[in-house]
């Protein structure tokens, strides 16, 4: 290997018109230029619990009444150990949520060290969540959890992501004629989409297709100028698709809000003992106790030293992703 990292070159995405159902595009692995196995892993990673259909705001997840607790808190831990946290989601009536799908973010932090690391959140789909944290530094640490979006908001986001609602609108500029008598017209433009594969302006539109990507651009037909007189376009208005009830769910007091919980200080002691081999698989690598000697570019996995050349390329890439994420939370 000579220390080199070989990265698989994926095929470019092949855009093509595909049938649509229920306002959602039908996309396959071949459309994305990836294998069926990779497509399956991607779909599994994107799977998200679907909440009950609610009609009242007080049935949604409440950041005020939701809470977290540290499981089996000990007097002290050692660097490289895992600590677990349980999150309990409740609605505005203090009732335990019966389903999952809430978007929680949980981190372990030390303000004095300016250090933090995010935990791996597991959804039990019954209103409770588990978070596992790696203890990567020596000293003290605390847990912080916030509700980014309730499960109800997540489903609203998904609904509009999959729909053909034109949230962004654009302006098309048509011009023709000599400078003194030049005719200019501005009309609305957008991508060609919708349940029937067409824009919502009927048949009175001009259509432009990108030969390389297959993307189709549509503009309302100008009153006097022909379709070939389009000279440029610009961003236009933004349209809010949310109804009144959905807007209430997106209120600032309900999104990106810290929840209350265990405020105990976690004491982390140095770990100098070798603790065996690490048989981590890729999906659990984030929680594999490890130490990084950045100056010497040496990886230490549960006390096993490995030079760059001795580590599998996929592991190196995954570690680099993890370290990049850790570093981004330290500043």
Automatic annotation (TrEMBL):
Organism: Cirrhinus mrigala (Mrigala)
SUPFAM superfamilies named among the record's database cross-references: E set domains
Name recorded for this polypeptide: Uncharacterized protein
InterPro entries: Ig-like_fold (IPR013783), Ig_E-set (IPR014756), NXPH/NXPE (IPR026845)
One GO BP: nervous system development
Top-rank taxon: Eukaryota
